[in-house]
Description:
heterodimer; A: 128 residues; alpha/beta; 2,3-Dihydroxybiphenyl 1,2-Dioxygenase, domain 1; 3 helices; 27% helix; 43% strand; globular; B: 148 residues; mainly alpha; Arc Repressor Mutant, subunit A; 2 domains; 9 helices
Amino acid sequence: MKIRLTSVMVDNQTKALAFYTTVLGFVKKTEMPIGEHKWLTVVAKDEQDGVELLLEPIGFAPAQTYQKALFEAGIPLASFSVDDLDTEYNRLTGLGVSFSMSPTQMGAVKLAVLDDTCGNHIQLMQVL
Amino acid sequence: MTFYAETVRQLRQDHYPNAQLTKQIIQAKRFIDANFGEGIDLKKMAGAAFYSKFHFIRCFKSLYGRTPNQYLTSVRILNAKQLLLTDDSVTSVCYKVGFDSVTTFAGLFKRMTGTTPTEYRRRKKQFSRHETGNLFGDLPLNLLNTDT
Lengths: 128, 148
């Protein structure tokens, strides 16, 4: 058994694809129409055979409640790894991305939390 | 401040060692990152943090969740994966990342990646030739992306 895919729930797949590729810097890997939605995944630019992130449409009402509760508490739905958090923080704030937690060291990691504009907080993490 | 940010702040205050100790352990981790290809051992790693071996193991594990030796092995295997994409022989890669036995290297590589170094190299070359490896098995990506 292997972990090949994980997902984030998004309120709009088109908007999510734009944010996750143009702003965060992932690349689209798979896009297949399925009914009114799509099977839509992105991967890290320099690890395109790595774990895929599914941008999953959030049509299930209880999931919307869950997403809203997490968002209001500032709890990240997913966490991505970066090599240099301060540089990434400066790049993203320059692009207008909003952070609910600026870079903060906790032990041997540095963390920051951003708003993905699709209903989620996402954590960026650098291992020091 | 969000509930999450406040929780992080509280955890930092209550559960993590002081800044100087953390700094010394991070320094030792960076020593490993920079010297994994040399014959470094626990004594040298602990020396980089100015600690005795046993105290160093305990502190390192509390910050990184792994022992220094486990971390060293993972750094060596990660770098081996990069070098296996070049034309270097498996034996040469083994020595370049700091192992002194090909058998040990191959065994650890298989345990951590699920495949042998030779098979790993073959699969990567196949992947870059055919751009496969997605959830849908061997379908080329250009058939899956609707806008290409």
